[in-house]
Amino acid sequence: MDIFLQQIINGLTTGSVYAIVALGYTMVYGVIQLINFAHGEVVMIGAMTAFTVIMAVVGLGLPLPPALIVLLGVLAAIPVCMAIGYTLERVAYRPLRHAPRLAPLITAIGMSIILQHVALLIWGRDPRAFPQIMENTSFAIGGAAISSVQIAIISMSVILMAALTWFVYRTRFGIAMRATAENVHVAGLMGIDANRVIAGTFIIAAGLGAVAGVMVGTYYGIAHYTMGFILGLKAFSAAVLGGIGNLAGAMLGGLLLGLVEALGAGYIGDFTDLCRWPVVSGMLSERCADGGHVVLFGSNYQDVFAFAVLILVLVFRPSGLLGERVSERA
Amino acid sequence: MKPYVRFPRWFGLALIALALLLLPHLLTQVGTAWVRIANFAILFIFLSLGLNIVVGMAGLLDLGYVAFYAVGAYVWALLASPHFGLHMPFWAILPLGALLACIAGAVLGAPTLRLRGDYLAIVTLGFGEIVRIFMNNLSSPFNITNGPKGITRIDGMNVAGMNFSATDTFLGIPFSGPTKYYYVLLLLLLLVIVVNLRLQNSRIGRAWVAIREDELAAKAAGINTRNVKLLAFAMGASFGGIAGGMFAAMQGFVSPESFVLHESIMILAMVVLGGMGNVWGVIAGALLLSFVPELLRYTVEPAQKALFGKMLIEPEVLRMLLFGMALVLMMRFRPAGLWPESRHKREMSEMKEEAA
Amino acid sequence: MRPTIKLVSVSVAAAVLMMGCGKEEPPPAPVVQAPPPPPQPMIVKIGHVAPLTGGIAHLGKDNENGARLAIDEANAAGIQIGGKPVTFEIVAEDDQSDPKVGNTVAQKLVDAKVVGIVGHLNSGTTIPASAIYNQAGLPMISGSATNPALTEQGFAGVFRVVGRDDQQGPAVANYLVATAKPKTVAIIDDATAYGEGLANEVEKTLKAAGVKVLPREKGTDKTADWKAVLTKIKGKKPDAVFYGGMDATGGPLLKQARELKIGAVFSFGDGACTDKMAELAGEAAEGLVCSQAGIPVQAAGAKFVEGYKAKYNIDPILYAPFTYDSVKLLIAAMQKADSIDPAAYLPALKAIDYTGASGNIQFDEKGDRKDAEMTIFTLTAGKITPLAIIKGGKSLTLDEYAALSAPAAPEAATAAEPAKPAEAPAKQ
């Protein structure tokens, strides 16, 4: 039981990280139906920038509380990522807004190659180790351990989610965003500057990406110039799972994906151990003897479990868990 | 204005044929590496033409195309290597690879028929990753693919006793291994292009375009959209299977590392960059993206030394930076691709409305 | 419609042709330089391949740095071959850890008329590329490809100076059995040719020693989140955990294991046996047991380490001593045969007896390092410290080893005296 609880905690933490990154994808998609494939790289730059600032502050040796140092890192990463988000929109996406649908996909790939290699030039090829300044106290819940960093990540993502929802539904800019998402032309007629709204969406998404980057960096204690790709891929899957374009969907998709990964890696291996199956184990008696194992799908298939759930969900709900019934747009 | 000299039609074709036949020998003068690069360029033409059927003609965004390439490669590798001790001849395994890839295409297509656009993209992406992960992990508990170690010492092509990995001399002209493969690939290329051109203007081809433009209308017009879509996946996949088989033969080694998502993305980039839906455009895209990175590999270092007298940015990093920029700029100035399909122009004007 | 297609296709052909011609310009420069023997220094090119972009680019650059250092030292030494002074030149290529790119750059090196190759880094790119080098009759020495299959292909010119997985795996497993005396061991790997290969060898040895091995757990070479796998392992309460993988994934793994309060002994292979572990895993790294294929730099390579630090201002990471030695081996063989012709110096390379930064090197008939030493390290106070050197199945302490090899190996002996050789070796 404690092991199961621990897996749930693991899954929720990873899922929260996915969710925050997924929010970045889903916001942009919601407004202009475009997958910003370079978003993972924005997260990576966020982590790297925070790394540099945190290292510098730690190097100064000031007696600051650790949480404040990390906050400084976040505060430095946010504007940097926002600037990148804005640049992405201006350079790579705005000129292509009326181009065929796949054209921005290619520019996004181009931009992510550029961002990755600029990061390589700045931060080098080595995996960078985040200094462990946050005191990592563990709390025991029913035999499972949850660390302060995990609590911080989960609560941070809830707070961000709530703040974003408030922003989108309650502020003028949020309303303008929703109007633009609904119909750019009509929004324009209502006096909304679509370019401003779209650029703003990119900037907010990039800001969230920066926070996610710092979360990932402090949680795993490592940052590398290629880290954005996998993270982006997972988060993109999460966004689609929840229904891309839907904020709550991104959150749900992220958490679900995290849980599927943790529980899949944790349990499917044991269930598919042929030596535990009555008939088959007899046939494999040679290999099962002496506590042997013949595991069909162990943790090596972790990503397969995640993708399989994704595919199953989409086959039965073609627009994701919370996605609206899609129009005919392809 | 125009110098209106009219050459007969055969003259141009003969010129192209001659140039293509001589190409490997010219390239050998520069370096055999370039023959290899040319061979890979042709492989990528197969792949991008296959993907073009799915993405360009039928409008189904497929991000897992590399899976079919992997199927073709592994079929060859498993049936013609010491791994299982099987050494089947190429004329059996190349079509078999294409067939299995074709079936895999239909298997992928079936559950995704209801999905559209970006949802389809992520499902195909997942499918591609699943195939790769299986190849990487089917070494235990029962060893089928040899896992991440890959399969080594794969038989090369062997036609009438001629071994394709050694150098032979005909009429005093040396034919290295890569050069011989070049001619095989050229022959296959001719076949693939003819098939694609025929498809483009066939009933099926027009049905694909109809689905791409408006699925509902296509359905209303009496097209069996389900079968036609499945056919697109299956046909597209079979080209990937052929390319995979040739890849295994040429490399003599396959491992799951060669079939990562990045590869799917590159093939997609070739299709989009060249001009979706247009066979010649896609070929141009494949050639461009195969040769540009290699050209940069040869030129970046000397160019930097000549310009600044020293290396400012490491050549391999600069190479990737320039490549990324090329992708962005190309799309910026030719958003419909280098050589768009004529029908796409119409679509673009509709796009403006639709973006609303 | 038709004429346009024709015209355009003509222009495509023309473009292809022009590309072909255009390409002629860059490569000839080196090609022209190499073969003719000018009166001044003869230029001898040595190829080096490693991934310089991608996930393990830092290790690739480390390899290249090691090779470059050896080239610089050889040039400073004013070597003469066949009565002519020689300048060595490195042709460094990036294979992006991709077998396809690996083959292309291998061919490029053959075209550039290099006389020998040091590389590649990964077994996955080295094995296919070795067929190309073999066909061109060029000797290649890998300083880091540990997969046994490389030298089992029967190619005459394929060598490696690093120990094979099936030498290193048993060494670390036996050490684990002898010291930690575990009853149950969990094995994790990163599902790469290297990680899985090494983990398999460890598993074999452990099972032979009667230790219970849990079902294999796996991540990938990019995994940062090991918690799910580790939690599962925690539930089975192993006494020791072995991980086959690189430092970038091993660091987070170790850190997360300690966060989950797994008390087992952790042991890693050479890919994760670096000082970087202390940085990546922090205090959690203390007490880690890990192995390297070769002898510790403290025992032999002080001169190398000083030189490396002086040139690059950083510490060598992992395989740099091996690529450094590989270059030196090629050059030593050329000197011995008094020829830069690969066919002529290959026999000398096969029969070589050389002591370099990674200890004494001789090759067996397959091209593997004969009686390769393995070193077991532990991580204390943020540094990896050698615990034991395994040679010929025996476990020796550092002092015993030094005493054993001192008379035989002059370079090792000079280097063994501690920390004095300040700038002398750096310049050399």
Q: How would you describe this structure in keywords?
A:
heterotrimer, B: about 350 residues, ABC transporter involved in vitamin B12 uptake, BtuC, two-stranded antiparallel ribbon, 6 strands, C: about 425 residues, alpha/beta, Rossmann fold, 2 domains, nine-stranded mixed β-sheet, six-stranded mixed β-sheet, globular, disordered N terminus, disordered C terminus
Structure in a nutshell:
Chain B is mostly helical. Chain B contains 13 helices and 6 strands. Chain B starts with 8 loop residues before the first helix and ends with a helix.
Question: What is the element layout, followed by pairings?
Answer:
The complex is a heterotrimer of chains A (330), B (356) and C (428).
Chain A: H1 2-32, H2 39-60, H3 66-93, H4 103-123, E1 128-129, E2 138-141, E3 144-147, H5 148-170, H6 172-182, H7 184-189, H8 194-220, E4 222-223, H9 227-242, H10 247-271, H11 278-283, H12 285-288, H13 302-316
Antiparallel strand pairs in A: 1-4, 2-3
Chain B: H1 9-30, H2 32-57, H3 66-79, E1 80-81, E2 86-87, H4 90-109, H5 117-137, E3 158-159, E4 162-163, E5 168-170, E6 173-175, H6 177-200, H7 203-213, H8 215-220, H9 225-251, H10 261-274, H11 279-308, H12 315-333, H13 342-354
Antiparallel strand pairs in B: 1-2, 3-4, 5-6
Helix pairs in contact in B: 1-2, 1-6, 2-6, 2-9, 2-10, 2-11, 3-4, 3-5, 3-9, 4-9, 7-9, 10-11, 11-12
Chain C: H1 2-22, H2 28-33, E1 42-50, H3 57-76, E2 80-81, E3 84-94, H4 99-111, E4 116-119, H5 123-136, E5 140-142, E6 158-160, H6 165-180, E7 184-189, H7 193-208, E8 212-213, E9 217-218, H8 227-236, E10 240-244, H9 247-259, E11 265-268, H10 276-281, E12 289-293, H11 302-312, H12 320-337, H13 342-350, E13 354-356, E14 359-361, E15 374-380, E16 383-391, E17 394-396, H14 398-405, H15 410-416, H16 424-427
Parallel strand pairs in C: 1-3, 1-4, 4-5, 5-6, 7-8, 7-9, 7-10, 10-11, 11-12
Antiparallel strand pairs in C: 2-3, 12-15, 13-14, 15-16, 16-17
Helix pairs in contact in C: 3-12, 4-5, 6-7, 12-13
